[in-house]
What does this fold into?
Amino acid sequence: MGTSTNRRGLSPSTPLLPDWINEFEENQPTDSDENESNEPTPVEDDGSPDDIPIPHNRFDASQRGFKEAIRTGNSQGLNRVVKNYYYHSLGGSKKAAQRMQLSSQAVARLGSTLSRFQKEGLQDVLNTYNLTQYVGRPAVEILSALMDIVCETSALLDNAITKYAYARAVVRIIEENPELDLTRLTDTQIAEMMAIFLEESLVYRLICDVGRSLTVATSDPLRALEVEKQLSQIVSGLIRSTIMPELQKAVQSIATIERKLTGIYRIAIQTILNS
It folds into this structure.
């Protein structure tokens, strides 16, 4: 992202929710789990209506705020950009969670795959993915090889964003746990890895939409990477303690994890807005 070529950013006419976004269904009970007690816990709402008025150029304020924060090196400015982006540019927690649908599904697939490692054994699961050559390889190589399984492949920009977020998540996962053993995963480790991926997906959605200051051809790549790291720290600091309990509950019910992730994304974004 930090070394991409110049682009003008998104047009004001870009639809908030593209045609391919499925109808949003947040935690609607099914016959199989309507009595479950591990549904995502709602966070306190910020009092805003579901239909937040969207400015004509909903990216403008966030783009200008981002540029100014980069110019001045103001980390508090970046904090404000994150909150403003998810409120004004993406229309609040409900619509923003809808917009993150592809990333939500990918985080759920990561959780499901890691849970399979835990229950079925790493070698057997890699065999089912035709990745036998990665048996015995370091965790960073195995996780990297899972990108197309976790993120799938399409021509959508959202898929590219999700893949970049996954690549950055793998780097962070290994940095935070250099001795990670994928043959001996705990539920807490799985939830932490999902949390990192979720955080990175929120960061790179924002950068893609309003981070032109990082993607112009004359941008300093080292400074861009520094800002990306700052944004990751900001988002993680705001939401990690809130989403970890929810992800740990979701890991206990892999069969419904994808549906639960949509609710967890909304909790994460609402936590940002309430900060």
